[in-house]
Amino acid sequence: ASLSAAGGTIKDAANNVANLTLMAPGAAGSLRANKTIILDTTAPTAPVIAAPANNAYLTTASYNVSGTAEAGSTVTLKDGATTIGSQTATGGAWSFAIVSAAEGAHSYTATATDSAGNISAVSAITAITVDTVPPNAPTIAALTSPTNNATPTFTGTAEADATVKVYYAGS
Question: Which residues contact 97 (CB under 8 A, 6 or more apart)?
Answer without folding.
Answer: 62, 64
